[in-house]
Amino acid sequence: MRTKVGLIIMTGFLFFHCHSDVPSRQPIMQSQTLDSGFHAELPKAHTRDFSSDELLGRFEPATHPDFVKIQTTHTSKSEAYLRADAYTAFVSMYDAARKDGITLTIISATRNFSAQKGIWEAKWNGDRLVEGKNLKTDVKDSVERARMILRFSSMPGTSRHHWGTDIDINNLENQYFANGKGKLEYEWLVKHAGNYGYYQPYTVKDSLRPYGYEEEKWHWSYLPLSKQMTQQYKDKITTDSISGFKGSGTAGLIDVINRYVLGIHPEGLP
Ligand SMILES: [Zn+2]
């Protein structure tokens, strides 16, 4: 049974995409020997049932039994949490990267609904500028205002950061990853992250990924869990459940689940 589960999960990693400007990811042909110990460091993901509250971020990671606190070596935050499986895999990836002279620092991990609500409403209310604009005064149409925020920030209840499987690494600007140190870090991730279960959900927008957030070279997701969560989100959550913050009425109008939650690179879709 364990072998079967391992094989099913790892099959997901066999399908990698290619960017024209970055090295293609390496398929993990040896993954089929997962249970023989060849990839002993890669934790096995069991099929799990996640509650609607977990999928919507309505919990406290600090007290949730499946979450662990990230050690200060691995994060710039004073306090950050991930699901234990995702963190174990990250630590293996971190150690491998260090051997290649690359440092991967988690600059954001789990953010629950209330944390995301704080980010969203600061932008909605004009307390935080969005691409140089005060949205409260400059963008009166609510759908248009929500779409502007959605270029880079999730609506509360729809963020992958709610899930405890997703992290931001090193810098929040694509430009950082275009040259020098940042470029080497990104190239390392593109080549190796898949070996540890991590993938980039917000790749460049193209025919494979026509909808959703702009490209985020810093955002990486632990697929053995997050793929299951994507499926369960699709099955359990409707836009009626996305409420409790300013502008939540736009969720249905924007079709935020299909366009954003499911607007990821197809490798991560169930
Ligand atoms: Zn992120």
The CATH architecture comes to 2-Layer Sandwich
DSSP summary, beta strand count = 6
Radius of gyration: 18 Å
Per CATH, what is the topology?
Muramoyl-pentapeptide Carboxypeptidase, domain 2
Summarize the amount of helix as a percent range.
25-40%
CATH class annotation = Alpha Beta
Element-by-element helix/strand order: HHEEHEHHHEHEEHHH
In summary, what is this structure?
By secondary structure, this protein is α+β, with helices and mostly antiparallel strands. 34% of the residues lie in helices and 7% in strands. The protein has one domain: 2-Layer Sandwich (Muramoyl-pentapeptide Carboxypeptidase, domain 2), CATH 3.30.1380.10.
